[in-house]
Amino acid sequence: MIKIGPSLMCADLGRLIDNIQQLDLADVDFYHFDIMDGSFVPNITLGPDVMRALRPCTDKPFDVHLMVEEPERFIALIAEAGADMISVHAESKVHLQRALQQVRSHGLKAGVALNPSTPLCVLDYIMDSLDYICLMTVNPGFAGQKFIPSTLGKIKDLKKKIDQADCGDIAIEVDGNISKAIIPEVVASGADMLVCGTSSIFIPGQSLGHSVAQVKRLISHA
């Protein structure tokens, strides 16, 4: 089953609890938190205090995407704030396998995030430490960028790599302008988890429930 995860950096930050209540009613699958440090990417967004405040508002999983240098410094803090899943960037200053084991030591699902130009070979020696892989389909840091078409082939290649590795169920998450137009293509290419922002769920003048229903229809017909 393809899972839908609204990206909360794209929500109405003044009405976050209301947005989550509407999205829960629409039966989304998880919530995606982008945490940026202003160093790994030139932006600063949601932090653990926001997660902690929202945790009592929903029982849906919290998926945290760490776009930070030295993510090991943040893992315990993010776990304590209520995360269920944490992905760290392969390109950050990190001992990657150690960071993934650190995530799992807190009882959470461990993921690795890859920038569009990062080759899949960086996964060769960590597949057995992964629960999911977040493929960036834009360069990380900002909402509203254009989807990079070459990443469709990367999704297909990753699907083959997972199947050949025989390391159990490793989900493919896609993140970056996952629009209504591109949803059928990323699903057909092998994506399991869709991070949805301003191009599919948080659309001005359209209710969140209606947006989620549209995304579900696109998935069902993919």
Automatic annotation (TrEMBL):
Please provide the record's keywords in A-Z order: Carbohydrate metabolism, Isomerase, Metal-binding
* Catalytic residue list: D34 (proton acceptor), D175 (proton donor)
NCBIfam families, per the entry: PRK05581.1-4, rpe
Q: What is its EC number?
A: 5.1.3.1
Give the protein's cofactors.
a divalent metal cation; Zn(2+); Mn(2+); Fe(2+)
Q: Where does substrate bind?
A: S7, H65, G141, F142, A143, G144
Q: Mind telling me which CDD domains this protein's record contains?
A: RPE
Report if keyword Ribosomal protein is assigned. no
Catalytic reaction annotation: D-ribulose 5-phosphate = D-xylulose 5-phosphate
Fetch the InterPro entries from UniProt: Aldolase_TIM, Ribul_P_3_epim, Ribul_P_3_epim-like, RibuloseP-bd_barrel
Its pathway? Carbohydrate degradation
Q: Which GO-annotated molecular functions does the record name?
A: D-ribulose-phosphate 3-epimerase activity
- Identify the taxonomic lineage of the organism of origin: Bacteria, Bacillati, Bacillota, Bacilli, Bacillales
Report the gene name: rpe
What does the record say about how the cofactor binds?
Binds 1 divalent metal cation per subunit.
Which PROSITE patterns does its entry note? RIBUL_P_3_EPIMER_2
Entry similarity comment: Belongs to the ribulose-phosphate 3-epimerase family.
Briefly state the protein's biological role: Catalyzes the reversible epimerization of D-ribulose 5-phosphate to D-xylulose 5-phosphate.
- Residue numbers binding a divalent metal cation: H32, D34, H65, D175
Write down the top EC class of this protein. isomerase
Name of the protein this chain belongs to: Ribulose-phosphate 3-epimerase
